[in-house]
Amino acid sequence: MAEMTPLDTAHAAMEAAPEDEGARLRFYERLAASELCLLLTCEPEGDRIDPVVIAPEGGDCVLAFDGEARLAAFSDGPAPYAALSGRALAAMLAGQGMGLALNLGVAPSAILLPAAAMEWLAEVLADAPEQVAARPVEFRVPGGLPEAVLHALDARLAGMTGMARAAWLVAVRYEDGAQGHLLGFVGAAPGAEGALARAVSEVLAFSGLEAAALDVGFFAAGDPVLARMAGCGLRFDLPEPEARAAPAAPGSDPERPPRLR
After folding, report:
1. 226-240, pLDDT tens digit by residue?
2. Model's pTM, two decimal places?
3. Which residues belong to any copy of the SseB protein N-terminal domain (predicted)?
4. What domains are there in the chain, each with its CATH number?
5. Quick one: which of 260, 261, 254 has its CA closest to 84?
């Protein structure tokens, strides 16, 4: 039996509990975070791609798989594809009237998602985190955040290889008297701050908690404040890269999804 992927696991949980809104949201959160292989008719030309489109009952769909091996299994061999995140794919399909055929015929997570589902996903993901300046004056042991949110946050950060060394979750009080929770990233890679902030925002967006809020901060590895955070906080470790990353494929930047031909 082929190894289960995180997307398979999230899909199985959703199928096992069709009335569980949380399980459904966790599937879409995992879909947004997953790297997908979008099947193409031919090799990409610059930032333009021509995906294979099928027309099952319910409307046109593009075909994507959460792994090159699964795409090859569907195509009976190597085939042209664009590697892009589920987030970028949703943005690309928004307004196109096309759905997504995911892992069709090759995995337990095979599912047809209609155009309306992809429009909804793109809308949820469209909200960007707000940037504010606030000075923390007190850190405390975090409390009150649901276990499901902590597990989802841990799973998302575990897939963000090389973007930061670690993160500390603490309860915080700011200079202006405001209180909440802060996730402080340590040693973020240059340019990774936006992706890290979006990842946290998306975990909260799919948590099912309308009032869920979590501030995000970035600290240098030698910042003295980290000792105070480490004394009371919950640590999340991010994986270190094993090798130098390959050049970005079309769609790998969520800010610049590929364009359809």
Report:
1. 999 999 999 999 998
2. 0.75
3. 12-114
4. 6-126 (no CATH), 136-237 (3.30.300)
5. 254
